[in-house]
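Please, structure for the following, as tokens.
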Amino acid sequence: RFTAQVEDGDKVQRGDVIAVIQGRLGSILMAERTALNFLQRMCGIATQTRRLVEAVKDRQVKIIHTRRTGPGLRILDTYAVRVAGGYSHRFGLFDGALIKENHIAAAGSIAAAVANVRRRVPITVKIEVEVENLQQVEEALIAGADVIMFDNMSIEDMKQGVTIVAGRVP
């Protein structure tokens, strides 16, 4: 039997009991290392997320996770982000359309890529465009992107990008 009670947003302090495990000693010892590895991973993700959330708490930004995770760990990893104050970007590929640099190159432009995706997805699906420079920020806005993701941009360019977007899209 395993019981644990930690509420969203609770901080676990040194010495806190976070779980009580009962069962056959042999079974507990066999599962102990695996359980600790999962717990350590989630605690690491939550700790780093909380540091980032605290670093931007006075700004109008949100810390959002990516889908990138280990096989079978997405539910646990996204939970660890959420309990630390972070937000979900998307859980799977089905949650939205993401246009990346290779899609833009294949379509010929951001406008063409957005138009191609709009024709193929339900109206309720958001289209996110990954941009790498300020010109692409402008293009994504004009093309009607629902979300713009700044990728591999300097802090200064991201600040200018946020100014250009001016709250029109996330």
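The beta strands are 2-3, 20-21, 97-99, 127-131, 147-150. Residues 25-55 form the longest helix (31 residues).
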